[in-house]
Specification:
2 copies of one chain form a homodimer. By secondary structure, chain A is of the alpha/beta class. Chain A contains 14 helices and 15 strands. In chain A, strands 3-2-1-4-5 form a 5-stranded mixed beta sheet, with helices on both faces. The first copy, chain A, has a 4-stranded parallel beta sheet with strand order 7-8-6-11, sandwiched between helices. In chain A, strands 9-10 form a two-stranded antiparallel ribbon. In chain A, strand 14 (394-395) and strand 15 form a beta hairpin. In chain A, helix 1 (17-28) packs parallel to helix 12 (307-325). The relative contact order of chain A is 0.18. Chains A and B meet through helix 7, strand 9, helix 10, strand 11 and helix 11 of A and helix 7, strand 9, helix 10, strand 11 and helix 11 of B.
C-alpha cells in the first residue's frame, strides 16, 4: 500500500526552493504505487506539529509546474528548529502522532544546515521511537554552506543577481564619477560566510574590468587598509564599487552594521553595513557615494535566476523522491561537480550523519592575499553556478508567479499542540 | 556641406539612456548628406566646455547597436547646469568656440528638466550670439517629470524593476510571516515626485493580491495613520510590504531619511528612509522587519528593462535626428499616448519653450484617498509603460554590456577652460 509523503520548506526561502518543491511533487506523482499523496506543511515543520497539512493533490499539474518559476516558499516556511530528542521528546512524539494519523511514510525536508539536523533526527525515529519513516533532506540555502554538495540550490541565483546588479550599478557610477558619485556600496547577505560577497567579484571579468573592493565576513575589518584600497581604486579608475557582506565585522567581533547609532528618540538604530561604509569613506576621503542594501530582493529575484541553479534545485527535489522510492533513508541528494571546463555535474548522495551540523566555509584560497578580492580559483568555482538564464513567463508586464490554493487536509486529531 | 553633431548625456543615467544614444547615432549614420559625424561629450556638457569630444565614428556598427542593451551613460554624464546667458556669457561663448572649431551644427542633449533648459538656451544661440545651431532635446529621466511627453524614457524600466522586485520580496515575506519577518520595506527613488513609488503598487494586481502601503513624497507623513494602516494589513494578511519614496517627509518638510542619527564619532548619518520606517514599525507594533534600499540598482537594471521603455528611448533618439535633418530647432521629441487599451503611442514634438522649467507632478487622482495607494487611473497610466521584456544578450552568465573605446577627437583649440 502506498504511503503519503510529507514535504516542508524550512528557514529563509530562495528564488528556487519552489523548483525543488516542483521536483518533489511532480516526481511523486509519477510513483503512485509508492507515494499516494504529498502533504505539505503549512509554514514548514510547524504545519506538521499543528496538523496543518496542505493537500497538494488539489493543485493542477499546471500549478505545480509553475512552482518551477515562482520564488519564495509556496507553502510557507518557518524559522523553527526542533530540539534534540532528549530535550524535547514531546515534539517528536507529536510528529509521529500526526504522521500516523495521515499515513505518512516519507519525510522530505527542504532547508539548510539546521534542517538537515532535524531531518537526520526524523530519519532515526524508527530506531529511537519505533516509527517507520524515510527522511530525505533536500538541500537549499543561499548561504551555500552545506557540506559534501558542491553548492546549494538557491545560491547560484543570488550569486547571479549580485554579480549582475553590481556590474550594472558600477556602469552607473562610472558614468557619474566625473562630477558626482565616485563610490557605490552594495550590501549583500551572508552573516557567517562570504560566498555571496564573493559573487560580487564576478561583476568584473577579463572583458569588463570594474574596480571592486569586497568586504568578507572571513576577513577582520581593517579601516585603514580598506580606505587606502578605495583611494587607490578611485585614483586609478575615477570610481570604485564596494561589495560589503552584512557579516563584515571589526576585530572585536562587532558587526559594522552595529554602528551604535541612535535615532531622534534615542533608540538604537540598525542601519546596515552599507551606509556605515559609505559614510566612513565620505568622512575620510570626501568622495560622494551612493549605497544600496539588496536584502530580500537578492534571494527572491526569480526574474534573474541562474538556469543552472533552477535545474539543480529541481533535480534535488526529483532525486529526493527517487531515492525514497528506492528505499533510502537519512540521506541528502547532493550536487557533485565532475568537470569544471566544460562544467558538468551529477546527482550524488550524502549521508545525513555527515551533513548535519557541519558548516562549509569558503576556502581561504578563494580570497586574495590583500583580503579584498576573489582569486581565480574562486572564479572557477563560481562562474559555472551563474550560467544560463531561466526567465519566468510574464503576463501584462509582470512575472506570472503562482499562488497555490493551499487546501487544508482535514484534521484527524484535532488536538492542539503548543509551539 | 554636412555639419557635425554634438551629443551629450546629462544628469542621472538610466537603464535606457544608451538606447537613445543608439537611436541618435544609428540615425545620424543614415544621413551622411546632413550629418558628417557625431561627437559625444565626454562626461556630458563638460566635454563640450573642455573640448573633450569623443569620436563616435571610431565605434563599429556592432558596438553602437550594443548601446541599445547597455545601461548607464556610455560617454559619461555629469551634474552640471549652465547658468543663464546673462549670468555666465563665458560658458556660451566657449561652447560656440568649441562648436565652431569642430564644425558642429547640431546639438542633441539627452536629459531631464534642467537639461531641457540648457538645450533651450543653446537653441537660441543663433539669435542671442549669432551662432547658427539646431538644438534638440532628447527626453530622459527616471523621475518622469517632463511635461508634454506622456512619460519619460528611463521611467518605464525603473517602474518595472520596482514592481517586479516588490512582488518578489512580498512573496518572500509572505512565506516567512508565520514565525519571522512580517514587514518588508523597500525604499525607492523620487525625491519630489512619487511616480516610482506608485510603480511599487503594480506588485499587486487582480490575479496576485499583495498588501502594500505606499509612502509618497506628495503626501505629508502621518506616523499614526501610517502605523494603523500597517497594523490593519498585517492583521488581515499576516504580512505587509511598504514602498517608501526617498522623498517621504514630515509635515515640516524634513525627510524621513534625516532621522538625526549620529554615528559613533558623532557624525550625522544619512541612513535612508527604509530603516527609519522599519524601526518605527518595530518600536510601535513589534513586527519583525526586513528592509532594502534599491538606489542605483533600480535605475541601472537593464537586465529587467521594459521593452516599451527601450523602444521609446530609441525612438526619441531617432526622432531627434530626423527632426534635425528636417531643419527643426528648439524642440523635444515626445511620447504621445493615443490609446490606452490597446496601448498605442506615437512620436510627437514639444517646443522647448514649453518644456524648460516645467515640472510635471503626479496627478492627485493617482493617489487613493487614504494617501497610501494608487488608483485605477494611476494603474491605467502605469501598466502600459512596463509592458514587454527586452533582455540583453548574456555571455558566460553575465549580461554582455558594451564599453566603448571613446576615442578622443583631436583638440583644435587647446585652450583650457575652467569649469
Amino acid at each position: 500500500m502506498p504511503k503519503n509523503a510529507f514535504y516542508a520548506q524550512s528557514g529563509g526561502v530562495t528564488a528556487v526552493i519552489n523548483a525543488s518543491a516542483c521536483g518533489v511533487i511532480e516526481t511523486a506523482r509519477k510513483h503512485p504505487d509508492k507515494i499516494a499523496n504529498v502533504y505539505a506543511g503549512r509554514n514548514g515543520i510547524i504545519g506538521a506539529l499543528t496538523e496543518e497539512l496542505i493537500d497538494t493533490s488539489q493543485e493542477s499539474d499546471e500549478a505545480i509546474a509553475a512552482l518551477r518559476h515562482t520564488p519564495s516558499g509556496a507553502f510557507g516556511s518557518c524559522r523553527y528548529k526542533l530540539k534534540g530528542l532528549e530535550k524535547n521528546r514531546a515534539e517528536y512524539e507529536r510528529l509521529i502522532e500526526v504522521f500516523k494519523a495521515h499515513d505518512i511514510g516519507y519525510f522530505f525536508y527542504n532547508g539548510g544546515g539546521d534542517s538537515a539536523d532535524t531531518c537526520h533526527k526524523v530519519s532515526q525515529l524508527s530506531e529511537t521511537l519505533g516509527f517507520p519513516i524515510q527522511a530525505i533532506h533536500v538541500p537549499k540555502t543561499v548561504d551555500n554552506d552545506l557540506p559534501i554538495t558542491d553548492n546549494c540550490p538557491g545560491f547560484g541565483s543570488v550569486a547571479k543577481y549580485i554579480a549582475v546588479s553590481s556590474r550594472e550599478a558600477s556602469f552607473d557610477v562610472r558614468s557619474m564619477a566625473k562630477t558626482s558619485t565616485k563610490v557605490f556600496v552594495i550590501e549583500v547577505m551572508g552573516r557567517h560566510a562570504g560566498w555571496i560577497a564573493a559573487a560580487g567579484g564576478l561583476a568584473s571579468d577579463a572583458e569588463t574590468e570594474i574596480p571592486i573592493v569586497i568586504l568578507f565576513p572571513e576577513v577582520e575589518f581593517n579601516q585603514e587598509r580598506f580606505l587606502s584600497q578605495v583611494k587607490a581604486k578611485v585614483e586609478e579608475y575615477e570610481y570604485c564599487t564596494i561589495v560589503v557582506s552584512e557579516g563584515t565585522h571589526w576585530p572585536d567581533g562587532r558587526f559594522l552594521a552595529e554602528a551604535g547609532t541612535r535615532d531622534a528618540f534615542g533608540h538604537a538604530q540598525l542601519g546596515g553595513a552599507a551606509p556605515v561604509v559609505a559614510n566612513m569613506i565620505k568622512d575620510a576621503l570626501g568622495y560622494k557615494f551612493h549605497w544600496a542594501v539588496a536584502d530580500y530582493l537578492q534571494r527572491a529575484a526569480r526574474h534573474l535566476a541562474s538556469k543552472t541553479d533552477v535545474e539543480q534545485a529541481y533535480a534535488m527535489g526529483k532525486a529526493a523522491v527517487e531515492f525514497a522510492v528506492e528505499g533510502e533513508n537519512a540521506i541528502m541528494p547532493a550536487v557533485i561537480r565532475t568537470s569544471n571546463d566544460p562544467y558538468k555535474w551529477e546527482v550524488g548522495k550524502a549521508p545525513l550523519s555527515e551533513v548535519a551540523n557541519v558548516e562549509k566555509m569558503m576556502p581561504k584560497e578563494f580570497i586574495t592575499e590583500d583580503g579584498f578580492g576573489i582569486t581565480d580559483a574562486c572564479r572557477q568555482y563560481l562562474v559555472p553556478l551563474i550560467q544560463g538564464e531561466d526567465y519566468p513567463p510574464y503576463r501584462n508586464g509582470m512575472p506570472d508567479y503562482v499562488t497555490l490554493k493551499n487546501v487544508a487536509v482535514p484534521k484527524k486529531l484535532n488536538t492542539a499542540f503548543e509551539i
